[in-house]
Amino acid sequence: MKIRSAVVSAALVCLSTPLLAQTIPPAVKAAEASIDGEKIRAHVQFLADDLLEGRGPGLRGSEIAAKYIATQFALYGLKPGGDNGTYLQQINFVGMNAIPAKTTFSLVPKKPEGQMSIDLYSIDLKYGDDYTVSNRTLTPVVDIDAPIVFVGYGVDAPEFQWNDYANIDVKGKVILCIVGDPPSTDPAFFGGDALTYYGRWTYKFEQAARKGAIGALIIHRTDLASYGWDVVKNSNTSEKTYLRDDKNPQLEAASWIQLDVAKQIFKSSNLNADAEIEAAGKRGFKAVELPVRLHAHVESVVRPFQSPNVVGILPGANASGKDQAVMYTAHYDHLGFVAGMAGDNIYNGAADNGTGCGMLVELARAWSEAAHHGLTLPHSLIFASVTAEEQGLLGSEYLGQHPPIPAGQISLDMNYDMILPIGVPLQTNVNGAQRTTFYPTVEATAKRFNLAIVPDPKPSAGSYYRSDHFSLSRVGIPAFSIETGNLYEGHDAAWGKTKHEEFTAHDYHNFTDNYRPSWDFAGNAKLDRFGMELGWLAISAPSTIQWNPKDEFEAARKASNGTK
After folding, report:
1. Are 196 and 160 in contact (CB under 8 A)?
2. 178 or 188, which is more confident?
3. With a threshold of 0.70, does the pTM exceed it?
4. What is the reported pLDDT for 20?
5. φ/ψ bin of 420: left (φ > 0), alpha (ψ from -120 to 50), beta (otherwise)
6. How many CA atoms lie within 13 A of 29 on its CB side?
7. Is 399 in contact with 89 (CB distance < 8 Å)?
8. At what angle do helices 356-372 and 37-47 cross, to 10 degrees?
């Protein structure tokens, strides 16, 4: 942890004393005790039902889910936090779905001297098996004939004196890059083993567009992406969703390619793929335009639509003044369904994220019960179930840009995403909390809940940048997700690790993520109680929660507070 000022450190010492538990009012403790795993189960069972057709944004099932959650908020007496006195914060989106039969990708190496036709050397790729693509410019058709430029990891990080785009012009071209960060074992250099945002696919596409490229080919490697090609294929061959009013530069072809395809590109350039990828991870790498062009025709179904975030508020005593609200978030969307597919064609998303959504709704009920029994909230509580998380955190991105109260008046966001209902956890992962001044309180509270705080089990996966808390962080709000570790009551850590790995391998973003009557929601209830107690401690804290000095989000926090 970074060095803090004496004033902040003194406040944190006060917050983390053994007397902390005595500051929890009886009404909060009673409401915590009322949190019921079976109520969470009921929400998950409904949200994961085939009736909701996988809760794809802008589709009928997603609308049912949003209205269901809004109805729960209304029953609990939450104040609407959406548009025009409703719980729904409508967002304008455009769905883009490439048409496989009308979309083509070909690699065209420079023809040898004397060769009359390039057709003999053209390498045609198969949609879904070799590549995925989405047209982010939101037009029905785009044609590309452009050279491919290998830009290593596609990173421009001044703080690490690293720029893969140095001395190369990629305007109007297609970049080829590797998923992940440049390799490092130094925590001060690209986070060491922990993935930074520079390693995320979202950054690769954003940066390529900022540099003027018209397309980007991200090389998939399971070890670097932390998931196999099936996850890429399932997540990117169905409809992709974009914010309609996003004014940032966009790519005509945002694409993933298999490693074997990348090897073909390098081979056609008389280069060795392994050697080039290794060189790209070292200082001194220089981007190079390859003697290979991408010929692409991308034809898409374009679907403008709206899909809402669902927002409810319990106002605090300072709601009309200098509020320091706590926000709870969880996304309700999933991947929808595959029309015309035989058999089970619905991505039900029971664990991802029926669980987190059910936990959010149950938290809202418990907090409203405490308020109805006379508890005075010093600051407000905001409950936001967001849409389009699976499409790149878009719902929470919009929420961060259009919060129900100014971002500078939101002290903390706690997020729940994909909490497997497999028993009572004895460990929690609160990755990101350690980057805030609230962490000593999190540590002390976890100890009272018999939860050992464990580090991110796979920091190379960059989990901090893969869920909705990240969108709130980007606008300065201290934010983290509450997750489990591998140790559960009645089992050893190996059992929990196996359960998580089995879900990732077989069910994550797959048709098999269905509700199971055998699931045990007692652990989900425990993490809800943990989050409720943290929420009380945050809204009653004597000092405002901040990011630690020099954290990557500190500047955004200062901007939201109107300070430098």
Report:
1. no
2. 178
3. yes
4. 54
5. beta
6. 8
7. yes
8. 130
CB burial string 283-311: b at 16+ within 10 A, e below: eebebbebebbbbbebbbeeeebebbbbb
Indicate the helix (H) or strand (E) that contains 130. none
Helix/strand/coil for 133: strand
Instruction: List 256's β-bridge partners, or say none.
Output: 132, 218
Q: Using an 8 Å Cβ cutoff, are 268 and 109 in contact?
A: yes
Distance CA 393, CA 481 (A): 14
The 10s digit of each residue's pLDDT in 210-257 is 999 999 999 999 888 878 899 899 889 988 889 999 989 999 999 999
Tokens describing residue 124 = 């045609």
Question: What's the gap between Cα 454 and its chain centre?
Answer: 20
Give how far Cα 245 sits from Cα of 250, 286, 368, 389, 429, Å. 12, 35, 35, 17, 35
Contacts 24+ apart (CB under 8 A), 488-492: 488/422, 488/423, 488/424, 488/425, 488/426, 488/523, 489/423, 489/424, 489/425, 489/426, 490/423, 491/423
In sign, the C-alpha dihedral spanning 516, 307, 98, 465 is negative
Q: Cβ(308)–Cβ(385) under 8 Å?
A: no
C-alpha 421/C-alpha 355 separation (Å) is: 8
Residue with tokens 């070890």: 223
| CA nearest to 307, candidates 405, 399, 203, 417 | 399
- Token readout for 101 is 């039969």
Each residue's pLDDT tens digit, 100-141: 999 999 999 987 665 555 455 689 999 999 999 999 999 999
Whether residue 292 contacts residue 269, with contact meaning beta carbons closer than 8 Å, is answered with: yes
CB atoms within 10 A of CB 69: 29
Share of the chain above pLDDT 70, in %: 94
Compute CA distances 301 → 32, 79, 85, 108, whole Å: 47, 38, 34, 27
Sheet strand arrangement including 427-429 = 452-453, 427-429, 483-484
Contact indicator for 123, 293 with CB cutoff of 8 Å: no
Integer CA distances (angstroms), 228 to 234, 315, 316, 533, in order: 10, 44, 45, 37
Quote the tokens at residue 549: 């000095």
3-state class of 354 per DSSP?
A: helix
C-alpha span between 221 and 116 (Å, rounded):
36
Average pLDDT, the chain: 92
Q: Where are the alpha helices (DSSP H) in 298-383?
A: 356-372
Residue ranges with strand state E in 22-164? 79-80, 88-98, 104-109, 123-125, 131-134, 141-150, 156-157, 162-163
Q: What is the pLDDT of residues 267-320, one digit of tens each?
A: 999 999 999 999 999 999 999 999 999 999 999 999 999 999 999 999 999 877
Q: Which two tokens stand for residue 359?
A: 């936990």
